[in-house]
Amino acid sequence: MSGVQHREVTADEDGMRLDRWFARHFPQVGFGRLQKLIRNGEVRVDKAKVETSTRLAAGQAIRIPPVDDPGTVRPVKVNQEDVRFLKDIILYEDDDLYVFNKPHGLAVQGGSGTVRHLDGLLKSLPNKLGEAPRLVHRLDRDTSGCLVVAKTAAAATHFGKVFMSRSARKIYWALVAGNPTPRQGEISCFLAKRATEDGEQMVVVKNGAPGAVHSSSYYSTTDTASRRFAWVTLKPVTGRTHQLRVHMAQLGTPIIGDPRYFNIENWMPAPGLGEGLHLHARRIALPLRNGKRLDISAPLPPHMRESWDALGFDAERFDVQDTDPEDNA
């Protein structure tokens, strides 16, 4: 870029540290250089001075000085094993983006004790300028399915705005304990992060409580196995941390295999079920930069396919495009 630009913080980046935001969008800017830019007042958030540790909020505007000097881009070390792994999970690719079928158990970003994560693996797929692809939204470590990654800064800006404006249509499949009542509807409540014995997690709170944010999801029951299990199709309207997991627990039908929010005491699992969180980002539809609309689906991961087979659910019988919970709610 030849001049100053301003980027808007997306909903998926809410709460992210400024230095991590720069590492995502401008990996060629080292930490020391970023500190110097901040000290000089060249990087600002909503026109205010900041620090590297400043936490960002969705909707804030970040001022970025000219930083893309081709001579300063550090060569990316390519790991061919990582390249093969990533290519095997590509669902769709064009000049602007990848859509990956993220496996269950793979973290999207690094954190305490997390060495292997998608954001790190992406460094092995640099674009023509030597830049690593950029995450534009996230999935939980144990949630599988469709994940969009931008190949360039311009594409990241476009898709960041798409997710911020809720123009992306996201459909999830889940296996839950019990049958939702009613069979379809909307879940709307306020959520906040709270410290627990198991670390931070989201809890339902009253409007106005410290840290409270509104959350909304549509759900629809696709099939049931007696009264013990239900295959549920979910559409998040907002994009809060752990939103679908908390919403289904709030409804009284927690997601099978959820280590944080499964809240049924003395639960007896059925034989033949797969192990792990049964939440899958089945489908995503979003506008591309060329004006066309992408609509892509991801097959069930092995552990959920195992459970579908055990319970007699036919994943091929129901076209996800015909079971959008918002249309039926």
Topology:
Layout: E1 5-8, H1 18-25, H2 31-39, E2 44-45, E3 48-49, E4 61-64, H3 80-88, E5 90-93, E6 97-102, H4 118-121, E7 134-135, E8 144-150, H5 153-164, E9 169-177, E10 184-196, E11 199-205, E12 213-225, E13 229-236, H6 243-250, E14 279-287, E15 293-297, H7 302-311, H8 325-328
Parallel strand pairs: 8-14
Antiparallel strand pairs: 1-4, 2-3, 2-4, 5-6, 6-8, 7-8, 9-13, 9-14, 10-11, 10-12, 12-13, 14-15
Account of the 3D structure:
The chain is α+β, with helices and mostly antiparallel strands and 329 residues long. The chain contains eight helices and 15 strands. The strands form two sheets. Strands 5, 6, 7, 8, 9, 10, 11, 12, 13, 14 and 15 form an eleven-stranded mixed sheet that branches. It has a four-stranded antiparallel sheet with strand order 1-4-2-3. A hairpin with a 3-residue loop joins strand 5 (90-93) and strand 6 (97-102). The protein is globular and about 65 Å long. The model has no long low-confidence stretch (mean pLDDT 89).
